[in-house]
Amino acid sequence: MEQNYNGTVGTVKISDDVIATIAGVAAGEVKGVAGMSAKAPAEINIKGIIGGKKNTGRGIRVTVDGGNVSIEAYIVLKFGVKIQDVATAVQEAVKNSVEEMTGYTVTNVSVYVQGVNLNEEPAEPTV
């Protein structure tokens, strides 16, 4: 669903995919996050695979109601991190990025830890 802003010279539309991309990038940049997890097999982005484009909205579900946004983030963590600390940092990063870039109010960011990546070097402990 797209949200519209009526500006002085026209309408501005922000799609849910744009919000998901913003949230996905913000979550992925948090120290301790190994990557995003697909919520379901249907989320595999065939167009992105064929076109070679990275699906930065992967692992994000967005619900927009007026100017309020609710976000679900499905993440995979690096081995050795404090899960609660990283999840809280993801919530804050996603909320701040989406609010700053869209002007919407983020009412909820739910984080679902879907796995732990054992293939990487252990992460530095989070404080």
UniProtKB/TrEMBL annotation:
<dbReference type="InterPro" id="IPR005531">
    <property type="entry name" value="Asp23"/>
</dbReference>
<dbReference type="Pfam" id="PF03780">
    <property type="entry name" value="Asp23"/>
</dbReference>
<comment type="similarity">
    <text>Belongs to the asp23 family.</text>
</comment>
<protein>
    <submittedName>
        <fullName>Asp23/Gls24 family envelope stress response protein</fullName>
    </submittedName>
</protein>
